[in-house]
Amino acid sequence: MSATREQPIFSTRAHVFQIDPATKRNWIPASKHALTVSYFYDATRSVYRIISVGGTKAIINSTVTPNMTFTKTSQKFGQWADSRANTVYGLGFASEQHLAQFAEKFQEVKEAARLAREKSQDKTELTNPALSITSHQVLPSPIISSNGPGEDKLFRSQSADVEITTEKERLKKMLSEGSVSEVQWEAEFFSLQDNNTKLVAALHEANASVEQWKKQLAAYQEETESLRQRVAELEAQGTPDSCGDSSKEELSQSLEELELLVKAKDEEIQLLKSQRCGRWEAEGEREETLQKLQELEARNAELERRLQLAEQSLAESLADREKVQHEVAKVAEMMDVKVFELSELRQGLAKLLESN
Hints:
Order of helices and strands: EEEEEEEEHHH
Radius of gyration: 40 Å
Strand content: 15-25%
Shape: elongated
Number of strands: 8
Helix content: 55-70%
């Protein structure tokens, strides 16, 4: 890629996914970390591209065309289909604002690509005026009528074909809606997975801090107990000298400071325990999300099975219709032969009448 020919016009960071080519339903992460995703413009060819590079490999190399559509499937996830690359790209953003900025830039680039294509077509028409002459003629469909016992069967097979096609489209619509819902749950699942990783790391760190604070608390408690024993010994001795009084005051002050420190540590431990309860609730939400994903996968499998049955029924109906058409053609050929034989017989009778 030439630096003078192609320049980046917008860049952002996102987690890159590609649709699984085997199932066409599940997302495959392109990398473990967020990557830089950029819009590039090729001035010499008037072409816009979306490019993302991971290491030395191009993860995304998608040319933006006017018929592309960027779809927001959740608050932080969006996708678009690239027919040239025969894949669907998905991007998971850190915030809803980043997703909105990328989607807005996608619309701008798409409109610019449309204008560039129209400009190129205008130049082609000016260069070769013959290309601008088009004919929009719609020929009427030939009406085929047949008389015979196979007519009712032919119409019934066509009606069944229409019904099966309608059922097939309805099943495809339900399957696409299930896939969109699954994509949304998968995006939320990846988000929860990232949050869970952060929470687990924070939990480990908090547990380590709690253990350390517990050790410090035990040491402070031992020191406090020893100071209390020291104060009790001094009070029992009842020494009237000023040195003993000052030592007693210092010990009392140190004891109060230690008690305040112990109280602060107790409050921190309670706070960490409440945070741990919150992380356990996040774990429960993740389990619920996984269960919903499994239910969606089961529903999509059922829809695929029904779609296969509808396609099989459609194939059988088409085969029956072809068979009926073949029988009608045979009957028509036989009728042509009979008509030809009848015409010859009439000609022979006419000759006999003339000779008599």
